[in-house]
UniProtKB/TrEMBL annotation:
InterPro entries: CoaB-like_sf (IPR035929), CoaBC (IPR005252), DNA/pantothenate-metab_flavo_C (IPR007085), Flavin_trans-like (IPR036551), Flavoprotein (IPR003382). This is Coenzyme A biosynthesis bifunctional protein CoaBC. One of its GO terms (molecular function) is phosphopantothenoylcysteine decarboxylase activity. It comes from Bergeyella cardium. Pathway: Cofactor biosynthesis; coenzyme A biosynthesis; CoA from (R)-pantothenate: step 2/5; Cofactor biosynthesis; coenzyme A biosynthesis; CoA from (R)-pantothenate: step 3/5.
Length: 399
């Protein structure tokens, strides 16, 4: 959706400016054209040479160049399909909403008629200050789109809200706007629940029973569903993966019981449910409150079944289109078909650990999709491409 789009970026004087080259690179990779304007103080944090090399366009920061030529702020503003101000410091934000225009960047901003995206970045007390909150509300009142700051470690060493959204989030926010604008959203007004990652079943405060799931497949599905306009509820076990679309509600859990509880908080309100999580089948009957000492040669742990989340989803299914996953090592298709019927699924995604490049942790997968009446096989692909194949199939079924 970004191919051929003209993205104008204004970079202000905050430490988060070091992330901007990554955003420029991602915009370029997705086919956008990029131009960058720096505030004078931004040059202390990121160089014109870096940004001009990545954007393949001259980077400017003042009305006049060394040779006396003029940088036309009106032409820059008219050129853009979208204006992204990132990082946006408290100072620049205050100037924007008050009409102060004392540098080239602000003159460009005040001349823009395209959509404006603002990614605030500042220390936590500044971000929480009433004046900043009021200025963000004013900017939203102008019709600007705020890409919220995130929670994390800040340059001051403090931890809290104020960290600029990651580069991929900046790019996704702009991309999502153009998807909406072009009406290419197959899942617009659809709610999709997706489970992802492993569950960890505690043995004691230190040890657990788990599996090798990374969550990559579930997160790829969530990102692709959001890109197509869905409101996504992603319930995830422990995973290093991240989400970038604001329309993804990420709920972190650890155990199968926690995942069960979260799934059924939302299940009756969704249109599609995709259970891609690798949920533990068994959990210790008793969890030791203290670390178990290594005193004996053997340790016996009594295990009991975890709640069968997918089976319960099938039993409670009303309007939902329900998708399950099957990871098998033998008699793959036979087991997948049995699971499809037993758990009242509309569709099941099968992958085999025998297929090279499929399974846990990797960036690729090789799948078959089975329904009660058909089967479709796919070649080895990246998990992002697999997510597109799965959602394409679902899209055909629910139209």
């Amino acid at each position: 959706m970004l191919r051929g789009k003209k993205i104008l970026m204004i970079v202000t004087g905050g430490i988060a400016a070091y992330k901007i080259p990554f955003a420029v690179r991602d915009f370029i990779r997705k086919g956008a054209e990029v131009k960058v304007v720096l505030t004078p103080s931004a040059e202390a944090f990121v160089t014109k040479l870096t940004l001009s090399t990545l954007s393949k366009n001259e980077v400017v920061s003042d009305f006049y160049n060394a040779d006396g030529s003029w940088n036309n702020h009106i032409e820059l503003a008219k050129w853009a399909d979208a204006l992204l101000i990132a990082p946006c410091t408290a100072n620049t934000l205050a100037k924007m909403v008050s009409g102060t225009c004392d540098n080239l960047a602000l003159a460009v901003y005040m001349s823009a008629h395209c959509p404006v995206f603002i990614a605030p970045a500042m220390d936590l007390d500044m971000y929480a200050h009433p004046s900043t909150k009021a200025n963000i509300e004013k900017a939203e009142g102008f019709g600007h789109r705020i890409i919220p700051a995130q929670y994390g470690e800040l340059a001051s060493g403090l931890v809290g809200m104020g960290r600029m959204a990651e580069p991929e989030t900046l790019v996704s926010a702009v991309e999502e706007f153009f998807i909406h604008q072009n009406g290419e959203q197959a899942f617009l007004n659809k709610k999709i629940l997706i489970t992802a990652g492993p569950t960890y079943e505690a043995i004691d405060p230190v040890r657990f029973i788990g599996n090798h799931s990374s969550g990559k497949m579930g997160y790829a599905l969530a990102e692709e569903a959001a890109r197509r306009g869905a409101e996504v509820i992603l319930i995830s076990g422990v995973s290093a993966e991240k989400v970038s679309y604001p329309s993804i509600q990420l709920i972190k859990i650890t155990s199968a019981k926690e995942m069960y509880d979260e799934v059924f908080k939302y299940y009756d309100k969704v249109d599609i449910a995709i259970a891609s999580a690798a949920v533990a089948d068994y959990t210790p009957k008793e969890v030791s409150p203290e670390k178990i000492k290594k005193n004996d040669d053997r340790l016996s742990i009594e295990l009991i079944k975890t709640p069968d989340i997918l089976k319960t989803m099938g039993e409670k299914k009303e309007q939902q289109f329900l998708v399950g996953f099957a990871l098998e090592t033998h008699n793959e298709e036979e087991h997948a078909k049995a699971k499809l019927q037993k758990k009242n699924l509309d569709m099941i995604v099968l992958n085999s650990l025998k297929d090279k490049g499929a399974g846990f942790k990797g960036d690729t997968n090789k799948i078959q999709i089975l329904t009660p009446n058909e089967k479709k096989s796919f070649d080895l692909k990246t998990k992002q491409e697999v997510a597109r194949d799965i959602l394409d199939f679902i899209q055909l079924k629910i139209q």
